[in-house]
Amino acid sequence: MIGRLSGILIQKQAPQLMIDVHGVGYEVQAPMSTFYQLPELDSPVVILTHLVVREDAQLLYGFHSESERLLFKSLIRVNGVGPKLALTILSGISADEFVQVVKNNDESGLVRLPGIGKKTAQRLIIEMKDRLSDWQTEEQNLIDKTSTESDNISTEQDIIKEATSALIALGYKPVEASKMVARLDTLDQSCEMLIKQALKNTVKN
User: Fold this and answer.
1) Domains of the chain
2) What DSSP state is assigned to residue 133?
3) Distance of alpha carbon 8 from its chain centroid, rounded?
4) Residue 176 class from Cβ within 10 Å (0-12 exposed, 13-18 middle, 19+ buried)?
5) Quick one: how far is CA 41 from the chain centroid?
6) Digits of tens for pLDDT over the chain (205 positions)?
7) pTM score, two decimals?
């Protein structure tokens, strides 16, 4: 089982990134909460991982914090929740917020996330409540780390397209994803910041 990768970040296009570990490139899928914490390309990076083995593939999922990884592992044990939906949940709500929503029986807080209907929200609350009873919240002062990174050759249009594609990969319909990005102020914004703001606006509405 691969539980951690330490290497050089050579590719990142949500929800996928690639880490070079001594010449071997590991493809990893990660939630947006992890993408917000990634360094620039060609920089050292450490990612906690969880390997999912299927008949047709071996998929590696990566996380910035242990709390995210623990929540992901619990989520994929819920009937009807696969890795893709678990990543979508972690992209739209922090681990601590999710725990709070479940403890408060707040169905509406889950239904706002893409791919979650009323029945799935009810199932998540029922199945996750006991598992999260001893959850210890983490101090998360990482939220607004000023990432004033200059995206090498990316134009504003490229960044808009990349952000829209990432939202589609997270479960939003193409038209919906385009509208979400169109509502934002895209000037001098990185792709990660656009996605973060789009998801934040969706949860608020």
Assistant:
1) 4-63 (2.40.50.140), 67-131 (1.10.150.20), 156-204 (1.10.8.10)
2) T
3) 20
4) middle
5) 18
6) 788 999 999 999 888 999 999 999 999 999 998 998 899 999 999 999 999 888 888 899 999 988 899 999 989 988 888 999 999 999 988 888 888 888 889 888 898 888 888 999 999 998 888 888 767 554 333 333 333 344 443 477 788 888 888 888 888 888 888 888 888 887 777 888 888 888 888 766 5
7) 0.65
